[in-house]
Design a protein that fits this description.
Layout lengths: L1 H13 L13 H24 L38 E6 L3 H16 L3 E2 L8 E6 L4 H23 L5 E6 H5 L1 H6 L6 E3 L7 H10 L4 E3 L22 E5 L1 E2 L10 H4 L4 E2 L2 H13 L4 E5 L7 E2 L28 E2 H11 L4 E5 L8 H9 L6 E3 L7 H7 L5 H14 L4 E8 L6 H14 L3 E6 L6 H5 L6 H24 L5 E9 L6 E5 L5 E5 L3 E2 L7 E2 L6 E9 L3 E10 L14
Helix pairs in contact: 9-10, 14-16
Length: 581
């Protein structure tokens, strides 16, 4: 409150200014009289200003002590930390949406932890509640609005008990709906966009000490949080997400990401390698490299090595922006990351089909610890719809890429994204999507009905597919997807798969669950198994370890089997490329 008081003092010094303007519509005598009064006021004003704060008093310039001559106080106008320390206040996080938001939560917590905040898993104990939000679909936003109503009711009850709580919105929704969030029923105290997490301590301090709403939703052309090591909260250290880039330049007509997360920029490779090494030392067994378009990664901040000048797009693919030149490409990064720990699995998501040169595919095929699983978002099987979506490829180009991937990586597992009911989609377009799903044979899929956002499609296209038609087409896509996934998964019945154990199955404490190299969930009984394939002694199976599992049956969403023995991913390491230790 001393800052507020100081501003009041300044306003008192400046108040006489309203009397210094020349009086209008008055006689000469009145003007003379007014001039004498003004002279007295002016002299008084100068004396007040001389004893009041100067320009330097409004900026931090330690070690000089700055004070305001107001109410005879010697308190600093702006203290060194500006009250930014958390003072052990407890923060509760709720994360919605994609894996990028999981990583953003870890970044935000790393920043607040260094300022003295504590984290709690109990909402009732929280002094600050932060929701890390998603705007990709209308349903995701509506979930947040509903949650805010619940939290506001809790906030009002807490005020009655003299234990106030501050509510903050982080991430994409904060950037997209900043005005609505601040004004709609005054539900939110703090807003921080995806590039403003460094500012969280200041925003929380302003909301706490001043009682005002505080926001920073500015997007950046440079922010990658490269110098911030996220505080990982992976389940018992088994897996972790590592952000390698932020933003997106693709400008697909349906997608809001370029507007909520900004332009594409890559995190320096040295920072990524440092984080992966740290995770390896902590015993993490699986790392997923994250980004809106990971395989367009290009770090131009480092000295070039192990890579050519530019990546050429495959035949049949195009882009709306100029391809970046020079620097380290995704294949270089993937190579370096995979060399850090041969016993650590490496995955990546999400890629774009246009950025799959053979170098990346061959590296996946050759390197034991890079998972033979590729997420290949198609979105539609119709050329007409793909063009309207501005995806930069045709159905034929996509299928050619699939054939090339399967030729280089014969045992690859493919997953994909599809949108039903996009602007202008006809029944024939929908049938082409169903036929693409059948032709490729995915084993994992993420399918959604189209949700209009304020994007290129909002301004240029008409959302002309009725909601009930969207839902019917979506259900048909899901049905075909499950049929094909069950067929693909049935092919592994009878094989032995290396499974990374995650822990107990959600449905039964008698079973364990884990994932194969192809990212398929495997359920198997909890029992002691051989320490090695040929060993007679046994040991219990624990989370974070590898086991060999014989697959006995398959469904569309999971496999069932029986563990045979403990195992390892370690193979003979390949030579390290010069340049990084």
């Amino acid at each position: 409150m001393r800052i507020v008081k100081s501003f009041l003092c300044v306003s008192e010094h400046l108040a006489p200014l309203r009397w210094l303007s020349k009086p209008r519509n008055c006689s000469n005598a009145a003007r003379a009289s007014s001039g004498e009064k003004n002279k007295g006021v002016s002299d008084s004003f100068r004396r007040q200003v001389a004893s009041g704060p100067r320009f330097q008093d409004f900026i931090k310039s330690p070690p000089v002590t700055l004070a305001v001559n107001c109410e005879h106080t010697d308190e600093h106008y702006l203290s060194e930390d500006l009250g930014l320390l958390g003072d052990a206040r407890k923060v509760y996080f709720e994360t919605y949406g994609c894996q990028m938001n999981v990583n953003d939560t870890e970044i935000a917590w790393s920043i607040l932890q260094k300022k003295g905040y504590q984290r709690t898993a109990d909402l009732k104990q929280a002094d600050v509640v932060l929701l890390v939000t998603c705007s990709i679909r209308e349903k995701a936003e509506q979930t947040i609005w509903n949650r805010l109503q619940q939290l506001t009711a809790m906030k009002k009850k807490r005020l009655k008990t003299n234990s106030p709580v501050k509510i903050g919105i982080l991430g994409c929704m904060a950037e997209r709906l900043k005005t609505e969030l601040l004004e709609r029923e005054k539900l939110v105290d703090v807003l921080a966009g995806p590039d403003a997490y460094r500012d969280l301590p200041r925003l929380l301090a302003a909301a706490t000490t001043g009682g005002q709403q505080a926001s920073n939703v500015l997007l950046s052309l440079e922010e990658t949080y490269a110098d911030i090591m996220p505080v990982q909260h992976a389940s018992q250290g088994r897996s972790a997400f590592v952000s390698i880039m932020r933003g997106c330049d693709n400008m697909c007509s349906y997608c809001i990401v370029p507007f909520t997360r900004g332009r594409e920029r890559s995190r320096p490779v040295s920072s990524i390698l440092e984080e992966v090494r740290m995770l390896s030392e902590q015993g993490v067994k699986e790392v997923t490299l994250l980004g809106q378009n990971v395989n367009s990664y290009r770090d131009t901040s480092e000295v070039q090595f192990c890579g050519s000048e530019r990546t050429k797009l495959s035949r049949g693919f195009s882009t709306v922006y100029r391809a970046k030149q020079g620097g380290l490409r995704f294949s270089d990064l993937l190579d370096l990351v995979s060399r850090i720990d041969p016993d650590m699995r490496i995955r990546f998501t999400s890629p774009h089909p246009k950025d799959f040169p053979d170098e990346v595919l061959q590296l996946i095929a050759e390197r034991q610890n890079i998972c033979k699983q590729i997420h290949l978002p198609a979105q539609s099987g119709s050329n007409q719809v793909l063009k309207a979506m501005r995806r930069g490829y045709t159905r034929e180009a996509y299928l050619d890429l699939v054939d090339n991937i399967k030729q280089i990586i014969p045992d690859v597992s493919l997953s994909s994204d599809f949108i039903s009911g996009f602007c202008g989609e006809t029944d024939d377009d929908h049938q082409q999507t169903l036929s693409l799903i059948r032709e490729v044979g995915f084993n994992v899929g993420f399918l959604f009905a189209y949700s209009m956002r304020k994007t290129h499609a909002f301004h240029r296209l008409q959302d002309d597919v009725a909601p009930q038609v969207k839902q019917r087409r979506l259900e048909e896509c899901i049905g075909v997807f499950r049929e094909e996934a069950e067929r693909v998964n049935a092919a592994v019945v009878g094989s032995t798969q290396l499974v990374l154990v995650e822990g107990e199955s959600k449905r039964s404490a008698e079973d364990l669950c884990g994932r194969t190299d192809g990212n398929m969930k495997v359920i198997f009984p909890k029992e002691d198994v051989a320490v090695q394939a040929s060993a007679s002694n046994t040991a219990p199976i624990r989370g974070g370890g590898y086991v060999l599992v014989k697959i006995l049956s398959a469904g569309s969403q999971s496999l069932r089997g029986r563990a045979l023995s403990h195992s390892s991913l370690i193979s003979t390491p390949t030579p390290r490329c010069d340049g990084y230790k």
